[in-house]
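QA checklist item 7 of 12: single-chain prediction sanity check.
[x] sequence parsed
[x] length recorded as 47
[x] structure emitted
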Amino acid sequence: MRLGQHVHSRGRPRLAVPGDAKDILTDFARLEEPYGATVTVGDTGNG
């Protein structure tokens, strides 16, 4: 949420940097496993 930022920019959706994005998606994939969902995390080369 970028709490240290100005009010007008806090909470705005933004793209994650590649390393953070992969971590977020890996955690999401792990959390979805008990529900039978399959999430594949790859590197598209974007970013």
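[x] summary fact logged: The chain has a mean pLDDT of 81.
[ ] second reviewer sign-off
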